[in-house]
Amino acid sequence: MQQEHEQQISLNDQMQRRLDERTHLMESGINPYPCEFAVTAHSRDIIETFQEEAKTPVSVAGRIMAIRKMGKASFFHIQDAKGRIQVYLKKDEVGETSYNTFKLLDIGDIAGVKGYTFKTRTGEISVHAEEFTLLSKSLRPIPVAKEKEVEGEKVVFDAFSDRELRYRQRYVDLIVNPEVRETFIKRSAIVSHMRSFFTAKGWLEVETPILQPIYGGAAARPFTTHHNALDMELYLRIANELYLKRLIVGGFEGVFEFAKDFRNEGIDRFHNPEFTQVELYVAYKDYNWMMELVEQLFHQTALAVNGSDTTSFLGNEISLKPPFRRITIADSIKEYTGADIEGKSEQELRNTAKDLGLELDPKIGPGKIIDEIFGEFVEPKLIQPTFITDYPTEMSPLAKPHREKEGLVERFELIAGGKEICNSFSELNDPVVQRQRLEEQAGLRQRGDDEAMIVDEDFLRALEYGMPPTAGLGIGVDRLVMLLTGEDSIRDVIFFPHMKPE
């Protein structure tokens, strides 16, 4: 506690000094927060294209990350969107006013420099300043890691490495740990490539409601809100499936949506209450066709973003080169536990789970029991991409009955790195059977399963107008980004993950 108190006093002292500097600058007629600055070059581009014989004119701007103030000449490093570069500042060239301004600057301030490129006597490519402008006075000091040699080895002190603090103050994390930016640049590239992949096939990107009067399309607890003008309860969507299938009914043959979905569930390495999902629906196709599409999509995305069809995740080298392994959920459970679940009653499934050491909620039905067994004993062991197929009907109330296997549906999940990445069905388009399935879900809700689905009369009405055979797919974008960037927590691929209040 004493140490925290002393740190706070130190922080307050530093902030007060910076406030005093701000006041001094303003009293000297210098605006520490001007409106604009013309940038013509970035650090990495300057370094990569540097020609020693040419004094190339440049205008750069960025945050000061290191500074050496001397008498009539000084050096500092600025960090921009592409990296860092050194700046040489000479009083006789930038003028006394600008140089006096510079002497009031700190690490963390943002500055603009106009000048030309050159190489110092030590061989460092730099910018020789001819004009200098303060662009933003930082009032709060940024944490700066320090290196010290201990017993012949370099040791880093005061690094901004506490994960919870990094998530809470992502803006500081991005400043002092610039490698973090690369994860999010890669995330953007992944989404961009997937979007291009879909649109190149002629499918339409659409938007559907986030606030929904009836939530559906997945088994999850929703967030609830109230609309004052309509005086009605609304829900943040848990999935966009039912709205996208309405569009297939309306005549579109391929639609997709990158959607923010919301599920009122726990938070862990693979779950965040707000997450990104892309859903795709294509008419006249089935889940076998969709498996091949997923193989193409993941393989091409990995090559486009990483330049390789292998990725390192949680210490495993994972290959995304097709074809991926395919195995039914029943066979996978038998392979990893020895238990045969095919054709078993609810009580027999409960006995199997008990024999395996699983404690189950008595309110859940047979589908959830199978899901619990699979999630505990099989899913974490599926490291290489594996299609798990042919689920029991109760586990998939929106999927079409299997054309060959009684009691099953045409569904697959792709598991990679020990976690589900995507989910797909041959979509159920028989409105009579769909009503029966949703009413069975309503019965499970009455038993106490608060994740069971609700009967959506408008969706059923849409199906009654006729929906063609359709293949549907949902991909967890955050998990795919984790897989392709090697990050071990969903919080590392979301800019601002949800946290408890400070």
Automatic annotation (TrEMBL):
Cofactor stoichiometry and binding remark: Binds 3 Mg(2+) ions per subunit.
Domain Aminoacyl-transfer RNA synthetases class-II family profile: 187-501
Name of one Pfam family that matches: tRNA_anti-codon
Subcellular location(s) per record: Cytoplasm
Name listed for the protein in its UniProt record: Lysine--tRNA ligase
NCBIfam families: lysS_bact (TIGR00499), PRK00484.1 (NF001756)
Reaction catalyzed: tRNA(Lys) + L-lysine + ATP = L-lysyl-tRNA(Lys) + AMP + diphosphate
Protein residues bound to Mg(2+) 1: 413, 420
Subunit details: Homodimer.
